[in-house]
Every structure is written in structure tokens, then in C-alpha cells.
């Protein structure tokens, strides 16, 4: 999974306190949402459900790093917000950008 690849590279798939407050790869918290460029499989039911639940929006194009199988090279981009949800389509609040 992309989450495992990122952690092995000493990169966190999470933002801020989500490093310690997350579901540890179960696909239920949504704090590892990232944007990916490259060939990837379609999201499964659990991922679709979580990304359709606020603060995420289903048409954001984000994926959950813990649910995304890596089969080839990808470009990964993280966005601000505890859940990484601020892709430019949503308002960024001050509390989402400061380090906790």
C-alpha cells in the first residue's frame, strides 16, 4: 500500500497530529488522503465511502494512501488540513494550517 511505501521512505502520509491520531491503515479515518498522478486502480467501497464523508468530498480526486496499492511509479501530493482535504476546492481555515 502507498501508506507503507511512504512510511518506509520516512515520509508520513498524514498531516500534523494525524501522525498519532489515525486508524493505522484501516481506511476509516481519512487522514492519509493524498493526490496521486500515475496509473492506479479504482477505489474500493471502503475508500469511496470514507472520501464521500465530510470533511472530504467525493469528487475531490483524493485517494487514501492506506487503501492504494502501488504497482508503478506515482507522484504523490499532500494538501493542508488535518485530513489533507484542502485541495483548492475547499476553504482553508487558519486552524488547518498551523502546526499542533
UniProtKB/TrEMBL annotation:
Pfam families assigned to the protein according to its UniProt record, in alphabetical order: Fer2
2Fe-2S ferredoxin-type domain mapped to chain residues: 1-82
GO MF assignments: iron-sulfur cluster binding
InterPro entries: 2Fe-2S_ferredoxin-like_sf, 2Fe-2S_ferredoxin-type, Beta-grasp_dom_sf
Protein's name according to its UniProt entry: Ferredoxin
Organism: Natronorubrum tibetense GA33
Lineage, broadest ranks: Archaea, Methanobacteriati, Methanobacteriota, Stenosarchaea group, Halobacteria
Amino acid at each position: 500500500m502507498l501508506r507503507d511505501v511512504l512510511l518506509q521512505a520516512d515520509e508520513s502520509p498524514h498531516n500534523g497530529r494525524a501522525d498519532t491520531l489515525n486508524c493505522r491503515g484501516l481506511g476509516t479515518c481519512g487522514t492519509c488522503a493524498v493526490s496521486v498522478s500515475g496509473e492506479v486502480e479504482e477505489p474500493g467501497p471502503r475508500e469511496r465511502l470514507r472520501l464521500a464523508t465530510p470533511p472530504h468530498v467525493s469528487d475531490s480526486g483524493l485517494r487514501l494512501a492506506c487503501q492504494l496499492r502501488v504497482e508503478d511509479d506515482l507522484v504523490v501530493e499532500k494538501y493542508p488540513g488535518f485530513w489533507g482535504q484542502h485541495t483548492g476546492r475547499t476553504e482553508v481555515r487558519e486552524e488547518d494550517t498551523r502546526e499542533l
